[in-house]
Give the backbone structure.
Amino acid sequence: MCQALTKPQAKMFFGDQWLDLTAPHVMGVVNVTPDSFSDGGSLFASQSLCLDAAMVRARAMVAEGASFLDIGGESTRPGANPVSVQQELDRVMPVIESVRASLDVVVSIDTSTPQVMIAAAQAGAGLINDVRALTRVGALGAAAETQLPICLMHMQGDPKTMQNNPIYDSIVEDIGLYIDERVQQCSTVGIPLERILIDPGFGFGKTLVHNLQLLKSLSLLASKGIPVLVGMSRKSMIGSVLGRPVDDRLHGGLAVSVMAYERGARIVRTHDVGPTVDALRMAHAVMMSD
């Protein structure tokens, strides 16, 4: 594991908004894809984006307390196939533009594609959330050009093959070393540490045991002093433990969200914004009490 930083970052500038990261924040998921694992296709009609439905969901999440909306146009579920650059742009850009025109919320663009990063930043996105940690050709340079904060996620393999027998020497240490390498790569193109967040990538190239061990020891990654984002909402780690289908994992999701916050996570990505906001506010009140 890399050497921890001495002091965690308290605030970060997301495009045109400062957010205090000493308190927890919730990121609502707006998947404008026909095939995402939980809500795939719900914002599509005949394989075309339904912008009105996407905006209804976006407005509801903001009303429920979301600080971020994470808008993604390429499914990264296990076994997912890639999409073309134009497909991804056609899916995400109308939503980004509509959200920025009408809602007071940080737009996070969930993409690994350099052209989408640039276009989203020009449309007012405040965060690049990349499950491939800027490893796609051209992504490092594009991210640096936007001058936006970047969330670097750990994934072993790629979405098509990542669940084919993932193996680690030590799950937390291996992720820590990977993050160190990606942070160093960011530094080489002028992306400072102050603009970086990290996501350990629950469910991305990890077995149930890996995911449970990772959550148990999440504080070790948080001790680096880099803000931590987690996404466990409705994932198979919850279904495997509780025996619940994907649309019946809210209670398990709330439990792991609170545990992640207690272990240092500051942004929780979820499909269930209102209940997660309440759970984290309650946990924060307890943790801040004298």
